[in-house]
Amino acid sequence: MKNVLPILLLALILGACGGESPEQTEPTESEATGMTAGDSTAASFLSQGENLAVPTGWLVRADDDSMPTVGANAEDAEAQDIYFVNMTPGWHITMRRPRGILWHPELTATGAYTASTKIHLFDPGERREGYGLFLGGSDLQGPDQEYLYFLIRRTGEFIIKVRRGSETETVVDWTAHDAIVPYTDATEGTAENTLTVMVMDGMTHFQVNGQDVHVSTDAALPTQGVVGLRLNHGLNVHVESLSVE
Question: Which contiguous run of DSSP H or E holds residue 70?
């Protein structure tokens, strides 16, 4: 990802070279608020839909329980709260105002598994906002939401927390680790990191770029359920991959 134009610009150029650009349409009210799963016949997690269009079937929940609008208008910051589009490979997301979670209901994990995401962070300015992975999600649209989340930030630190309802519990507070690629002048426009959580044999491994940054044996951690993304406000990222094995 280094030494290239920002991904959004590159994707637009490639689209123009390949013919007509996909139509960019505003989502319906239900899609924008993330309160429905969209067309059930096309709700496959792996079928993202048209490039540069809002992904089908994804849901969004803001921390403040507001109803954020989601759209594909890259130019007008007032057009929607979250810019969220398919951009092969993966998705491009700009959290303009809210902080919260994004997920597809079909991506779940139980038993022993590995959940992973590769994320490219674009210039965050002076913001030290976290971004990364959540897992073990349940009741994500209800009052008893619960999930475990694992985030990093531009300064090369990670945090692990649990959300239960409106409350959060810190498992590991912000901690620096050499495995994390920070956003600096040397990253030349984007910092690439892969966050992985491995659940197996009574242990939960939290990894960045293939290295353990924390290992937990706490059986109370919620690890069984929906897997998705957590992003704080003001961040501009490209999520290259999100998977469960």
Answer: strand 70-71
> Which residues in 128-233 belong to E strands, given as ranges?
131-138, 146-153, 157-164, 167-176, 190-200, 203-208, 211-216, 225-231
User: What does the pLDDT average to over 101-107?
Assistant: 95
- Pick from 106, 160, 99, 162: nearest CA to 129: 99
Closest CA to 58 of 38, 81, 72, 83: 38
Whether the per-residue pLDDT at 153 is higher than 80: the answer is yes
The answer to whether 160 touches 208, Cβ cutoff 8 Å, is no
- 146-155 mean pLDDT: 98
Task: Give the DSSP letter string of 121-142.
Answer: EE--TT----EEEEEEEESTTS
pLDDT at 127 (0 to 100):
86
Rounded Cα–Cα distance for residues 169 and 187 (Å): 32
| Token pair for 53 | 């269009």
Report the Cα–Cα distance between both ends of the chain, in Å, rounded: 25
Q: Which candidate, 237, 211, 242, places its Cα nearest to that of 130?
A: 237
Over its C-alpha atoms, the chain yields an Rg (Å, rounded) of 17
Of 157, 171, 153, residue with least CA distance to 222: 171
Nearest C-alpha neighbor of 192 from the set 146, 138, 238, 124? 238
Q: Is the pLDDT confidence value at 169 over 70?
A: yes
